[in-house]
Please model this.
Amino acid sequence: MAAGPKILIAMDSFKGTLSANEACRAVENGIRAVQPNAECECIPLADGGSGTTDVFLRLRHGRRIDVPVMSPIGKEVIAHLAHFTDPDEVVLELAAASGLALIPESRRNPMEATSFGCGQLIARAFEMSDCVTVGLGDSGIVDGGVGAMQALGVRFLDERGETLEAPLVPKDFGRITGLDAGGVPRDKTVRVLSDVENPLHGRLGAARVFGPQKGASPEMVEQLAEALEHVYGLIEATVGRRVSERSGAGAAGGMGGALLAFFDAEIVSGSDFLIDQSSLLDHLANSDLVITGEGRFDRQSMMGKGPGRIVREAKALGIGVQVLAGSVEWDDRMREFLTADQVTGLIESDASIPSPGETTNLLAAAVRRALVRTDPPTSRTDLRTHEQ
Model:
């Protein structure tokens, strides 16, 4: 059989439905039905949200460890982290402990949700290593990381100077009049993975941008904004560091701000970091076609997310690209890099989210349609020329 095209599959997760690895495998199955002799290579994407730990474990030899923690609504759940020894490092994702997927839709109220479980997960990581990478994304909280910091040793005080009980949630923040951060371990190196650049406060802040995504009503959004402004006024005065205006402080409902305030943390682009770690661009340069995508592909995808970077790099290299997404919302930024024939949506934007099994089948069918529509040639040279 003649050598077929070399196809790189670099899918991000379909939030709440398929992991990045599962999405890659579904796409590969679809390719096999159209191009059985294709050489497929799967490199799952992540940006700090769900699936980040699994992507690290795929790239490096490490050990996955389960940790019992408190969910955003106070129930015990089993989260996970990954421990690596060469070099020594622990990687974890907030979503595993404080993610939106852990909150039933009927109970989504960010005024009463806590990041305490994420703090428990970080505390376990600190027991294992002095270098910890925290992925932010897919959170279910807008508590500014207050709950997490309580789990890590910060004492929030009432008007009598007494320690308030943990976990505090945003509806309690008015009771806070001071804090003691003496219990925080200062000798740790913290890297934060996030593709969110929002500050903590204001029109683009954690409450107003992310509150509605977590179930906040318009009235609740303003209450969240006021609560965060109050508690961060105290935090910044205590630690002597102004973080609320820094890029990424509003990530994960303000968890970015907490890590910047209490640790010598660095926020980096999660998608760029993992793309670089996987040497994905080297693999891209040696491919004839790349297939990428995520649950929703829109303007934000082209502004820092992994699939958007793959699209831009493929165009610069003259390599064919196909985008497969759960839903698609076109804008002018996308049209600079893509044509309608290069983007396939699985469902309409207002349709109900399909089950994991349905999404797997839809992805396999979508890639078959995409490849048949572009009539992909069978040789590598012809495919590259055809896609250009």
User: Anything to note?
Assistant: The radius of gyration is 22 Å.
